[in-house]
């Protein structure tokens, strides 16, 4: 299962030292996401994107979090931004295809 709570504390410590560290916000968001704390995850992914707007993975994970909340228009917008940044990413294209397949089936 890992030690997600300890990881969260370490990311928070890192952000106290450097509040503008985009990857620390991104990784903190990932930890929150894994714990089901979607609002906290979204806030961290958004902060990472404020600092580094071209962070494709942050766009993708923000899309994942919005998708989990049923906020599909916002999810789609962030997947599209991620694909604009990294159009040849197999992971992004696969995630995008799964989202489209789910929307078409629903």
Overall description:
The termini are far apart. With 106 residues, the chain is mostly helical. The protein has helices at 4-17, 22-34, 38-51, 56-68, 72-85, 90-105.
Helix-residue proportion: over 70%
CATH topology-level fold name: Serine Threonine Protein Phosphatase 5, Tetratricopeptide repeat
Measured between the Cα atoms of the first and last residue, the distance is: 32 Å
Number of helices: 6
Question: Which CATH class?
Answer: Mainly Alpha
Which word captures the global form? globular
Summarize the main sheet.
none
Class of secondary structure makeup: mainly alpha
Rounded mean pLDDT is 90
Radius of gyration over alpha carbons? Answer: 14 Å
Strand content: under 5%
Counted up, domains total 1
> Any low-confidence stretches, pLDDT <50, length ≥5?
none
CATH homolog superfamily: Tetratricopeptide repeat domain
CATH architecture label name:
Alpha Horseshoe
Q: What is the number of strand segments?
A: 0
Helix-strand pattern, N to C? HHHHHH
Summarize the structure.
The chain has six helices and no strands.
Task: For the structure shown, list the relevant keywords.
mainly alpha, single chain, about 110 residues, about 80% helix
Write the layout of secondary structure elements.
Layout: H1 4-17, H2 22-34, H3 38-51, H4 56-68, H5 72-85, H6 90-105
Helix pairs in contact: 1-2, 2-3, 2-4, 3-4, 4-5, 5-6
């Amino acid at each position: 299962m890992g030690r997600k709570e300890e990881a969260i504390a370490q990311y928070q410590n890192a952000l106290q030292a450097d509040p503008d560290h985009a990857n620390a916000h991104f990784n903190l968001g990932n930890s929150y996401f894994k714990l089901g704390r979607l609002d906290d995850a979204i806030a961290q992914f958004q902060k990472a994107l404020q600092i580094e707007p071209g962070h494709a993975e942050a766009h993708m994970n923000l899309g994942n979090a919005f998708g989990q909340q049923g906020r599909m228009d916002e999810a789609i917008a962030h997947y599209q931004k991620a694909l604009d940044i990294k159009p040849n990413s197999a992971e992004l294209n696969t995630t995008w295809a799964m989202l489209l397949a789910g929307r078409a089936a629903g």
